[in-house]
Design a protein that fits this description.
Shape of chain B: globular
Helix content of chain A: 25-40%
Strand content of chain A: 25-35%
Largest interface: A-B, 31 and 27 residues
Largest sheet of chain B: 2 strands, antiparallel
Oligomer: heterodimer
Strand order of the largest sheet of chain B: 1-2
Largest sheet of chain A: 6 strands, mixed
Distance between the termini of chain B: 26 Å
Number of helices of chain A: 9
Structural class of chain A: alpha/beta
Distance between the termini of chain A: 35 Å
Number of strands of chain B: 2
Radius of gyration of chain A: 18 Å
Chain lengths: ~250, ~350
C-alpha cells in the first residue's frame, strides 16, 4: 500500500534518513523504534510531506506528491506530538476540524465525531476548553480528530502516530495501543507509530522497524528484532530478557 | 466548561444596537434634527419624494454630511474588525492588530506619500492604492520577522510594530515638513484617525472592499480554524497553507490600506472587537468573522457619534477615542498573556 524506494532526507547538508526499500501493507500496525535523532520523525515528515526528500513514496501506486490535497487528507492523517493551539476552542470543536476534508451531512458528522471521541476516550472532555486540558488529554482529542479525518477513505488509509503514548498515563497508553491494534485489524488501517517502550512493542506484537543513525537496521517480528544484543547496539543499553508463558519481557 | 452566547441572538442584538445607533447618528450633532425628518430625507433621496419637511440646508446636513460619515464609520469599523480577526488567526496570536503590529502606520506612510506628492485629482484612487501597497509590504515584513515554527513570537511582533511605527512616524514627519499649511492641518487630523470629510466616493470604495473581503474571508473561515492548530496540522487536513497565507495577508493589507486611506489610523478596533466576540461567542471563524464585522460597525459608529457630540460644535478625532478605550484593554490582554507565560514557564 505504501512503498518507499530510495528515500533520502537531508537538512543543511546532513543526511537525516536513507531508506532503500520499505513496504507497509494494508492493515498492519507498525512500530517505529530507534534512539533520539535516528530519523523517526524525518520518516514521518517525509511521508506526510512536511520535509522535502528525494526518492519515491508510492501510496496506492501513486506518488504521494501527486495526490490531490483533499483526497490525501482523507487517506493520510498525522497525530502530532504536541499542540500549539492557544485559542479557546472546545475539545469537540477541535475534533470537528477533522470533518473538514470530508463531505458528511451535519448529523452524520456529529455521529462520527462522537464515535471517535468515545474511541479516544475523550468524550467527557467535549465541552471543555482545549487550551486548558493536560498534555495527554490534548493528544487524545487530536487522536479523535485524526480518526474522524479518515472515516471517508475509499482506499486503505494511513495513520501516522508521532509518540502517541509518551504523554499518557499507563492505562491510557494501553487503551491507545489497543485502539491502534483494533484500527489495523478491524478497519484495515495501516498504522505507523513512533514508540519508545520496547515492552509495549513485545506485548502487542506488531511489526517493528528499528532506525539508527538514519538507516533501517532491523525490520520484523519484535521477538526476532528486539534481541538484547541488538538493543545494546542501537540504544547502548543491555537489557535482561525474560520469558514468561510464550512472551518475552525486557528489563 | 465554557459559557458561550449562541451566535444568532448575539447577531440580532447587535443589529438592534446598530439600528438605534444609525438613528442617533443621523439626528444628533451640532444641529439637532427630528428623527422622523432625517429618516424621511433619506427616503426622499432614494425614491425622489418630498416627505421629510426638512429645510434645504438640513437635508444637506443629513444626506451629504451625516449619512456618508455614518456609513463610512460602519464600513471602516467592520473592515478593521475583520482584518484584525484574520490577522490574529494568521499570526496565531490574539494580540495581532493592524495598529499594534505597524500595518496601519505602514499604510499611513503610503497614504501620506500620495497625499503630499501626487496631484489632488488623482487622490481618490492613488491614496488607497498607495496605502494598500505600503500596508502589504509592512505586513510581509512583520510576518517574516515574527514567525517561527511554534507560531509567531509576541515579542518580535510587538517590537516589529514599534520599529515600523517609529519609522513611519519619521517618514510622515519628513513628508509633512515639505507640505503646505492647509494640507498639514488635514494630515494631522487624519493621522489621529477621523471620519470627518467622509464622501460618497469613500463610502463606495469602502463598501466594495467590505463586500469583497467579507465574502472571501467567510470562504476561508474553516481553513483558518484549522490554521490555528498549526501549519502542518492544517496542511494535513488538506488546507493549501502557503496559498492561503499569502491570500489572507494580501486581503488583510488591502482592507487596512483602504480603511487607513478613508479615515486615517483608527487603532485597536481590530484588537478589541474580535477579542470581545471570542470571549462571548467562541473562536470559530465561521461565527467570529461576521459577528466581528457587526460589532466593529457598532463600535466605530458609536465612537464616531461620541467624537462628534461630546465637545460639540467642535469634534474629537475618533482615533483618539478608540485608542483611549483600546490601549487599557490591550494592557489587560498583555497582563493575561504574561500570566499564561509564567504558568507555562516560558
Amino acid at each position: 500500500m505504501l512503498e518507499i524506494r530510495d528515500l533520502l532526507v537531508e537538512a543543511g547538508g546532513r543526511r537525516l534518513l536513507q531508506l532503500d526499500n520499505l513496504t507497509l501493507p494494508a492493515g498492519q500496525f507498525v512500530a517505529l523504534l530507534g534512539p533520539n535523532g535516528a530519523g523517526k520523525s524525518s520518516l514521518l515528515k517525509a511521508i506526510s510531506g512536511e520535509v522535502g526528500c528525494r526518492g519515491e513514496l508510492l501510496f496506492h501506486g501513486q506518488s504521494l506528491r501527486h495526490w490531490n490535497p483533499q483526497e490525501r487528507a482523507r487517506h493520510v492523517a498525522v497525530l502530532p506530538q504536541a499542540s500549539s493551539l492557544t485559542f479557546p476552542f472546545s475539545a469537540r470543536e477541535v475534533v470537528e476540524m477533522g470533518l473538514m476534508p470530508l463531505s458528511l451531512s451535519r448529523q452524520a458528522g456529529a455521529d462520527v465525531v462522537r464515535a471517535a471521541m468515545i474511541d479516544a476516550d475523550c468524550l467527557h472532555l467535549a465541552a471543555r476548553s482545549f487550551p486548558g486540558l493536560s498534555g495527554g488529554e490534548k493528544q487524545r482529542v487530536h487522536l479523535a480528530r485524526v480518526l474522524v479525518q479518515l472515516v471517508q477513505a475509499e482506499k486503505t488509509p494511513l495513520l501516522l502516530l508521532d509518540e502517541p503514548v509518551s504523554a499518557q498515563d499507563l492505562g491510557q497508553q494501553h487503551n491507545i495501543l489497543r485502539l491502534a491494534v483494533r484500527l489495523a485489524q478491524q478497519r484495515g488501517i495501516t498504522v505507523l507509530a513512533v514508540l519508545h517502550d520496547l515492552n509495549q512493542v513485545l506485548r502487542y506484537g506488531m511489526r517493528c522497524l528499528v532506525l539508527a543513525e538514519g538507516e533501517l537496521v532491523a525490520d520484523g517480528e519484535p521477538e526476532a528484532v528486539l534481541t538484547p544484543h541488538r538493543i545494546e547496539e542501537v540504544w547502548g543499553y543491555r537489557p535482561e530478557r525474560y520469558t514468561t508463558e510464550e512472551r518475552f519481557a525486557l528489563l | 466548561m465554557m459559557n458561550r452566547l449562541p451566535a444568532t441572538p448575539a447577531a440580532v442584538l447587535l443589529c438592534g444596537v446598530l439600528m438605534v445607533g444609525v438613528v442617533l447618528s443621523l439626528t444628533e450633532g451640532a444641529v439637532s434634527m427630528p428623527a422622523s425628518g432625517s429618516l424621511a430625507a433619506i427616503w426622499d433621496a432614494l425614491f425622489n419624494s418630498e416627505r421629510s419637511g426638512l429645510l434645504g440646508h438640513e437635508k444637506i446636513i443629513v444626506l451629504e454630511l451625516r449619512l456618508p460619515r455614518l456609513l463610512l464609520a460602519m464600513l471602516v469599523g467592520a473592515i478593521l474588525a475583520q482584518c484584525g480577526a484574520v490577522m490574529q488567526g494568521l499570526f496565531r496570536n490574539p494580540l495581532a492588530d493592524p495598529g499594534i503590529i505597524g500595518v496601519s502606520s505602514g499604510a499611513a506612510v503610503g497614504a501620506v506619500l500620495a497625499i503630499v506628492l501626487l496631484p489632488v485629482a488623482w487622490q481618490v484612487w492613488a491614496v488607497p492604492s498607495s496605502a494598500f501597497v505600503a500596508g502589504l509590504l509592512t505586513t510581509l515584513l512583520v510576518y517574516s520577522l515574527a514567525r517561527s515554527s511554534a507560531g509567531t513570537s509576541v515579542v518580535m511582533l510587538l517590537l516589529a510594530g514599534v520599529a515600523v511605527a517609529a519609522f513611519a512616524g519619521a517618514g510622515i514627519g519628513f513628508l509633512s515638513y515639505f507640505t503646505d499649511d492647509t494640507r498639514l492641518r488635514e494630515l494631522s487630523v487624519w493621522q489621529m484617525g477621523s471620519l470627518n470629510g467622509a464622501n460618497h466616493q469613500q463610502v463606495l470604495l469602502a463598501l466594495v472592499a467590505f463586500v469583497m473581503l467579507a465574502t472571501w474571508f467567510q470562504r476561508r473561515a474553516g481553513p483558518l480554524n484549522a490554521f490555528l492548530l498549526g501549519e502542518s496540522e492544517a496542511r494535513h487536513l488538506g488546507v493549501p497553507v502557503e496559498r492561503m497565507k499569502l491570500e489572507l495577508i494580501v486581503l488583510a493589507a488591502l482592507g487596512v490600506g483602504i480603511a487607513v486611506a478613508c479615515s486615517g489610523i483608527i487603532g485597536f478596533v481590530g484588537l478589541v472587537v474580535p477579542h470581545l466576540v471570542r470571549l462571548s461567542c467562541g473562536p470559530d471563524h465561521r461565527r467570529l468573522l461576521p459577528l466581528s464585522a457587526l460589532t466593529g460597525a457598532v463600535l466605530l459608529m458609536l465612537s464616531d457619534l461620541a467624537a462628534r457630540t461630546l465637545v460639540s460644535p467642535a469634534e474629537l478625532p475618533v482615533g483618539l477615542l478608540t485608542a483611549l478605550l483600546g490601549a487599557p484593554f490591550f494592557l489587560i490582554l498583555l497582563l493575561q498573556q504574561r500570566k499564561q507565560w509564567s504558568l507555562s514557564g516560558a
